[in-house]
Amino acid sequence: MRERGLTGFDLKCIAIFSMLVDHIGAYLFPSEVWMRYVGRLSFPIFAFLIVEGYFHTRNVKKYMARLFVFACISEIPYDLVRYDTLFFKENQNIFFTLLLALICIYVLDVYREQVSIVCGILAVVGFLTYYVVKPDYGIAGVAMILFFYLFRFYPLEQALSVAAINLVCLGKIQRAGVFALVPIWFYNGKKGPAAKYFFYLFYPVHLFILYLIRRYMTHVA
User: Fold this and answer.
1) Which backbone phi and psi does 30 adopt, to 5 degrees?
2) Three-state DSSP class for residue 220
3) How far apart are CA 73 and CA 61, in angstroms?
4) How many CB atoms lie within 10 A of CB 205?
5) What is the pLDDT of residue 129?
6) Which residue in 49, 125, 159, 160 has the fewest CB atoms around it within 10 Å?
7) Percent of the chain, pLDDT > 70?
8) Whole-angstrom distance between the N-terminal and C-terminal Cα of the chain?
9) Vertex 196, ends 147 and 181: CA angle to 5°?
């Protein structure tokens, strides 16, 4: 089954569907808690895919730049729908989480023999994550991505460490995130259809649309 399995494209589709259900529940129908549980699958899948993206990209620096650009593009829609303001400095969108984790992976990979450099840069990234950027999922989110990287060739250890993050570090609802390990298990290592920018654009566009819908619903009510 893993030979036939799920491509990276399939996993991205599962992740964005899960995320869309989650955000519809969070911003339009907050009493529908089941939608938030469905949404818990999205981040672990995106965390897994950022690691796979690192190993398959032809230019990791362009990969980082792309994440940074879309992090900036997404920030206003994210703050509008979540905090009803153009800028909220205490919390940033998920692209920043993915970017910070990708920087950590790059450092661990490139400077693996230079322990002092690795420790220093990781400490700086950790400081920025916790005290400055404060992205969605925070340090625990970055750690989850690093576990996917560190245990890439050790599926049992990978599953246990990622499950532990979901069960212990991210709150009650995020415990449902362990079920994301099921579709990840069936990943077949293939990219699937190319639709790169669709997935990047989907995040800010759907957040802005949900913000407009909520404003309409509020005024109608």
Assistant:
1) -60, -20
2) helix
3) 18
4) 14
5) 85
6) 160
7) 98
8) 50
9) 30
